C-alpha cells in the first residue's frame, strides 16, 4: 500500500497481514482522487472515512492537506494500526474511532464535505448507507458521499449522481 500524492507521495505503508481488509487498489484510488481534485479544494475538506480498514483512503486525504479526517472502523486491530500511522506521520487532524459504522452514522454529529464508505462488498445492508447519511444530515450541502462497491450492488436513491467503474472497483457518488 502506498500514498499516491501529496506531502507523503510514494510513501509505502505495511499494514499487518492479519487485518480483515480489502484495500482500494492504487489504480482505483488514483482515479478517484483525480475526480476529487477536479471538484474540490482539499485544504477546505473535512472527511468522514467509513469502514476505513487500514486507513488507506484517510492517509491519501491527509497527505493532500485536508482540514480533518474522522475514520471509523469496528475492528480493534485496524484502528490500532491507524493510530500507529497517525503518530508516525504526525497527523494531528486525524481521528480514528473504533465503532460500528451503522451506529456511528446514527450518532455522529457534524457536516462533512466528503464521506467515503468502503464496506465489505458482500455487506447485506450496503444500500442503507446513503439513506443514513442523508437522513442524519451528515453531508455538507456541497459535499459528496462516495460508496465503493462491487458491480452487483445497485443503488436506488434520490441523491444518486453516478457510478464510476475502475476494473472490479465501483464508486457510486451521491450529493444534494
Structure explained in plain terms:
With about 180 residues, this protein is of the alpha/beta class. The protein has a single domain, classed as Vaccinia Virus protein VP39 (Rossmann fold, 3-Layer(aba) Sandwich). It is built from 5 helices and 7 strands, in the order αβαβαβαβαβββ. It has helices at about 25-40, 55-65, 75-90, 100-105, 130-135, and strands at about 45-50, 70-75, 95-100, 110-115, 140-150, 160-165, 170-175. A 7-stranded mixed sheet has the order 3-2-1-4-5-7-6, with helices on both faces. The radius of gyration is 15 Å and the shape is globular. The protein starts with about 25 loop residues before the first helix and ends with a strand. The mean pLDDT is about 95.
Judged by helices, strands and strand pairing, the structural class is: alpha/beta
CATH fold assignment: Rossmann fold
Q: Uncertain runs with pLDDT below 50, 5 residues or more?
A: none
Number of helices: 5
Distance between the termini: 33 Å
Helical content class: 25-40%
What spatial order of strands do you see in the largest sheet?
A: 3-2-1-4-5-7-6
Could you give a short description of this structure?
With 176 residues, the chain is of the alpha/beta class. It has five helices and seven strands; from the N terminus they run αβαβαβαβαβββ.
Please name the defining characteristics of this protein.
seven-stranded mixed beta sheet; single chain; globular; 5 helices; alpha/beta; 176 residues
Amino acid at each position: 500500500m502506498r500514498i499516491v500524492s501529496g506531502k507523503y507521495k510514494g510513501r509505502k505503508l505495511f499494514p499487518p497481514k492479519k487485518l480483515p481488509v480489502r484495500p482500494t487498489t492504487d489504480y482505483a484510488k488514483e482515479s478517484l482522487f483525480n475526480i476529487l481534485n477536479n471538484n474540490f479544494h482539499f485544504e477546505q475538506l473535512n472527511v468522514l472515512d467509513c469502514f476505513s480498514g487500514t486507513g488507506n483512503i484517510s492517509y491519501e486525504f491527509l497527505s493532500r492537506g485536508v482540514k480533518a479526517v474522522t475514520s471509523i472502523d469496528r475492528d480493534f486491530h485496524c484502528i490500532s494500526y491507524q493510530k500507529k500511522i497517525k503518530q508516525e506521520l504526525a497527523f494531528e487532524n486525524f481521528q480514528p474511532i473504533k465503532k460500528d459504522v451503522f451506529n456511528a452514522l446514527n450518532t455522529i454529529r457534524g457536516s462533512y464535505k466528503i464521506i467515503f464508505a468502503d464496506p465489505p462488498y458482500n455487506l447485506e445492508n450496503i444500500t442503507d448507507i446513503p439513506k443514513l447519511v442523508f437522513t442524519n444530515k451528515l453531508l455538507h450541502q456541497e459535499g459528496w458521499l462516495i460508496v465503493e462497491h462491487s458491480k452487483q450492488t445497485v443503488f436506488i436513491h434520490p441523491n444518486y449522481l453516478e457510478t464510476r467503474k475502475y476494473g472490479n472497483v465501483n464508486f457510486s457518488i451521491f450529493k444534494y
